[in-house]
User: What shape does this take?
Amino acid sequence: MARQLVEKSGLENGPDHEVHFSFTGCPTDPPDGMSIGYFLEGLFGPESDVPLTPTLKGMFEDTSRNFFFVAEVDRQIIASCWYLTGASSPELSVLGEVYTRPDYRRKGISRKLCDHALQHFINSGGKAMLLGSNNPAAIDMYFAMGFQPYPEGLMRYTVGAPGDFDSACFDPAQSTRIREIQHGDIPGIANLIGTPNDWISVCYPIGLFSSSHQSQARCVSFYTLLKKAADQGGGLFALASDGGGVMGIGTLLHQGNRLNPGSALVDVFVHPAFRTKADDLIESILQSAKVKGIAEVRAEILAAEHEKIVLLEKHGFRQSCNVGRRETLGDKTYRVVSYLRTMG
Ligand SMILES: CC(C)(COP(=O)(O)OP(=O)(O)OC[C@H]1O[C@@H](n2cnc3c(N)ncnc32)[C@H](O)[C@@H]1OP(=O)(O)O)[C@@H](O)C(=O)NCCC(=O)NCCS
Assistant: This one.
């Protein structure tokens, strides 16, 4: 896609240089992709939460839409940011890869670039943008742009009142279905994890918990962590609305080894308004385990998750052993319990 110039301006309190602000969708034109990839990969490395080269080449555009914004001086990139929406859910996005070269900082460049990204998102039908940060300088900037803590670490910008967005996003009247989690679910996963929930673990085996119980400093990494774990074998399931929203997540993580080849760990996390659909998630996980020839599935969860335990028992899980482990989240410590279901 051709790059589009959105602003030319001088540097605030800096030398007399013109800064060009532009953006591109994906796949980028090859020279743009190379220069943006060169800039960002040098900063965040190949292990970045955003697989830069595949993203720039458009390899995720089947389920997501990616936009890169850059500022340039004398044709050299000096700052960047990126945002992603689901291909079928343009109302929700995540913002990331926000960076200004140290020699150009405090000149208003990131603020302008992020404002352009936010405006482009809103003009394309965007309603809520999420990000995660533990950098106080960046948090100050996002706060000044109108982002609010969601509830801590994560931040969210909403067009209009946040409550109105949440009511529409998690409207229980929406029809849902179970499908595999896809790249375009990145914003939906972050939004689900950020929204108030009395359920604690999202995916206990990888230490992923609801933001209501654990402060989160990053948001794209939720998906990255889940994907990495599932790539070892297993599956990731979304309780998804027809509009592309994520109302629940189910995980099946293969624990195969030579001593116990057919074992897997499960967990589920569902928005309070969609609890009656949690059964569908568990059933899909069990079905998938069966197809994969997994002999037994286990759930290691916190003993305080009473509703989840009742749900597991309803689907044939029985408490197996005392794990003897405790999990501390914030100022609370929880006992970990293990539930087992053998696949007949
Ligand atoms: C955070 C960062 C992107 C800011 O870039 P920048 O181009 O210098 O930012 P701007 O000049 O547009 O500043 C915008 C606002 O951010 C805040 N800010 C930026 N740098 C700050 C600093 N060092 N201390 C305090 N506040 C700061 C201020 O509120 C500032 O507004 P002001 O200048 O009117 O006070 C840059 O410092 C950076 O690249 N840091 C490393 C990467 C990073 O942490 N990225 C964010 C990941 S979420």
Observations:
- The chain has a mean pLDDT of 93.
- The chain has nine helices and 17 strands.
- Residues 4-121 form a domain with the Aminopeptidase fold (CATH 3.40.630.30).
- The longest strand covers residues 89-100.
